[in-house]
Amino acid sequence: MSRRIHSMGALGAVSAILAGLVWAPQAAAVTPPSIINVPPPPGSVGPEQPMRANFTCRAPGVLEGTNFSDPQAASRLLNLDAVRPLANGAGIKIALLDTGVTPNFRLPNVKPGGDYINEADDGMVDCDGHGTLVAGIINAAPNPDDSLVGVAPAAEVFSIRQSSGLFSLENPPPNSDPDASRTAVDLRAMARAVVHAVDLGAQVINISMTACMKALRPVDDAGLGAAIHWAVSERNVVVVVAAGNTGTEQNNHCVQNPPARQDDPGSWNDLVTVATPAWWSQDVLTVGSVNDQGAPSTFTLLGPWVGVAAPGERIASLGNYPDGRLVNAEPGTDGQWVPFYGSSFSTAYVTGLVALVRQKFPQLNAYQVMDRIKATAHAGPGSPDPAVGAGLIDPLAALTWNVPEQPAPKPPASQVITPAAPPPPPDNRPNQVAAWMLGGFAVTALAVIAVVAALRGKPQS
Angle at CA 21, nearest 5°, toward 219 and 116? Predict the structure, then answer.
């Protein structure tokens, strides 16, 4: 079978967010987004609009000739066996904003965290087959039958189903208003989910979903930026996000950005595509993908916002099956099994590492944790490099090296923001008062009519 680059967008986890955002490449000078002094949204749970299911659940499988007892390539590349005696994520809470998780015995530390597709499911349903894969990389418990072990198997994970490519809006907008589009709806849900994750006590938030937008016409995501900034700067939470994947309709319509200039590798000029939440780079740790040898993956979206990189090709993890079986492929359009690829998985490896660093160095704040991981990465060809940022993560170095601690940037007092209060319930008092008054008038009128009728009927003396 020929080797095919295939991102997790084929699972539908991201493609629904990006439906309709196709464009011809057009470079533009872009400035980094600015945090505006607006409160993030409330951390309410549930879909903003009714969703309609139109799907058959995804059923991932196994490539021919696979032996899951063999050491995983990603684990060897990151030398995770050397890390396990040093930290396991115990005491750390992680929020996984994804397509939900299917419970199974390999994920004993995964708990329901909420649902923005169908509130009744509470994050513990994964028909897309994406969130369970990500959860397995972060948190899978060891099993003697295979080599899979999560990077932080002792961490506590809250599954929050924030998106799904297998649901659509029940009442889609009749016009092209971008604020009413599915993309805008999902970004607003992501912002609420970030605040909700903080309310659950998360110290790390994993966001594998990416929305790609034209550099000249980005969708308004100020609410998402405000939610992330509040989580990081005020609540000391590390937010790890995917860089995004390029390709055709199956992998998200993300048009690749041009290579960085040699004289200006970190430039925001000449961008074709911006990705959110990745481009909120001051407050997030954005992750690109590399192959088994540590070279940048051809599909990873280039950008000045990329912070580090981790393995994102030939991934094996837990399928969305209640028996906890391992999978490493999905059905392709030609009926053949296609290996899993995508920066979503790279993000999961970094999220696991963040949990280990937070356990080993509890005195570090969120910005210092991100700085430590970047400072101990294997540097890329540029500094920073638009494909891998500071380079491939090195978990052993991140847990053992003596890294000078950098103070976190302190936002001015005027920038301190707090989540907006949930909207108050409708005030029915005016209607109640009016009803009482009308009722009183009616009773009085009836009494008057009765008195008049009685007087008319009384014999005259």
Answer: 65
pLDDT at 54: 81
Query: In 3D, which of 314, 268, 301 has the Cα closest to residue 388?
Result: 301
Q: Which long-range contacts (CB under 8 A, 24 or more apart) does 295-299 make?
A: 296/380, 296/385, 296/387, 296/388, 297/5, 297/341, 297/343, 298/5, 299/5, 299/7, 299/245, 299/246, 299/247, 299/251, 299/341, 299/342
* Euclidean distance between CA atoms 293 and 63, whole angstroms: 21
What does the pLDDT look like over 93-136, one tens digit per residue?
999 999 999 999 999 999 999 999 999 999 999 999 999 999 99
| Burial classification of residue 359, based on how many CB atoms lie within 10 Å of its CB (0-12 exposed, 13-18 middle, 19 or more buried) | buried
Distances in Å between the Cα of 200 and the Cα atoms of 43, 223, 360 are: 10, 20, 22
Partnered with residue 460 across adjacent β-strands are none
Distance of CA 426 to the CA centre of its chain: 32
Tokens of 113: 């965290």
110 has which bridge partners?
A: 157
Helices (H), 37-172: 73-78, 80-83, 131-139
- Give the model's pLDDT for residue 5: 36
Q: Are strands 211-214 and 110-115 parallel, antiparallel or unpaired?
A: unpaired
Q: What are phi and psi of 341, to 5 degrees?
A: -140, 155
Mean pLDDT of 288-300: 96
Average pLDDT over residues 28-43: 82
Residues labelled as active-site residues: 98, 130, 344
Handedness of CA 399, 405, 407, 409 (dihedral sign): negative
Beta bridge partners of 96: 159, 206
Whether the Cβ atoms of residue 40 and residue 227 lie closer than 8 Å to each other: yes
Closest CA to 126 of 104, 157, 154, 108: 104
pTM, rounded to two decimals: 0.84
More confident residue, 286 or 270: 286
pLDDT at 404 over 90: no
Q: Residue 51 in contact with residue 292, Cβ under 8 Å? A: no
Q: Among all chains, which residue has been given the structure tokens 């009413």?
A: 180
Per-residue model confidence (pLDDT) at position 30? 82
CA distance 43 to 419: 8
